[in-house]
Specification:
- The chain has helices at about 15-20, 50-55, 75-80, 95-105, 150-165, 180-190, 195-200, 205-220, and strands at about 5, 30-35, 60-65, 85-90, 110-115, 130-135, 170-175, 190-195.
- Helix 2 (about 50-55) packs parallel to helix 3 and helix 6 packs across helix 8 (about 205-220).
- It is globular, with a radius of gyration of 16 Å.
- The longest helix is centred in the C-terminal third of the chain and has 16 residues, at about 205-220.
- Helix 3 links the parallel strand 3 (about 60-65) and strand 4 (about 85-90).
- It has about 220 residues and is of the alpha/beta class.
- The structure holds D-xylitol-5-phosphate and zinc ion (ZN).
């Protein structure tokens, strides 16, 4: 069954603590935290101090998605703030291998993300240093966008690369995932679906997560 990572970007920011608490016992596998700098992406979200303030109120794995230029400069700040895993964009760092190694050396999970126009082949040299690959299924920068259908082929291609390598790497998909496309996402090979609007847009988060997972388990027959 596919794991669900609710994206905080779609939460009510006037009640951030309550929103994070609403995920306790909801079946969420991790909390996805979207960091945007207004440079790598045309939007600004929040920084390490917000992550630090939320850390004591949740036991969820903090999955921090860095949509920022020069991500290498901020690794320590986010790890000190309480990130359990860091995802950097391959398009945003000069030496991805070095960044991934340093994330792992500091005891966190290391991941790389590719934008819709970035070919999956660029991942190949990085496989030994990856715990997770994030396939963007929208242009990064905003929540609530529509899932790009061509992402399904991209997920399959990434899955094939991972399987061929024999490495133990999770595949995460982010952007526009909802009850209408999650079965395809799952069958294409995704292990984790990020879901912002599809979780925080529903009053009952547990039910929202269950309905996303129910569809994938029905389709896969498991
Ligand atoms: C987009 C972000 C996503 C986004 C997901 O740049 O990386 O995590 O918030 O939100 P939805 O599920 O609403 O597309
Ligand atoms: Zn994200």
């Amino acid at each position: 069954m596919i794991a669900i990572a609710p994206s905080l970007l779609a939460a009510d920011f006037t009640r951030l603590g309550e929103e994070v608490r609403s995920l306790e016992n909801s079946g969420a596998s991790m909390l996805h935290l979207d960091i945007m700098d207004g440079n790598f992406v045309p939007n600004i979200s929040f920084g390490p101090d917000v992550v630090r303030q939320l850390r004591p109120i949740s036991s969820l794995f903090f999955d921090v998605h860095l949509m920022i230029s020069n991500a290498e400069r901020y690794i320590d700040r986010f790890l000190e703030a309480g990130a359990d895993g860091l995802t950097v964009h391959i398009e945003a760092v000069a030496h991805p291998e070095e960044v991934l190694k340093s994330i792992r050396a500091k005891g966190a999970k290391a991941a790389v993300s590719i934008k819709p126009a970035t070919p999956s082949e660029v991942l190949k040299p990085l496989l030994p240093w990856l715990d997770m690959i994030l396939v963007m299924s929208v242009e990064p920068g905003f929540g609530g966008q529509s899932f790009l259908p061509e992402s399904v082929e991209k997920i399959k291609a990434v899955k094939a690369i991972v399987q061929e390598s024999g490495c133990d790497i999770l595949i995460q998909v982010d952007g526009g995932v909802n009850i209408h496309n999650i079965a395809q996402v799952s069958m294409a090979g995704a292990d984790i679906a990020v879901a912002g609007t599809a979780v925080f847009g529903q009053k009952d988060r547990k039910e929202a997560i269950q309905s996303l997972q129910k569809i994938t388990s029905e389709d896969s027959g498991s």
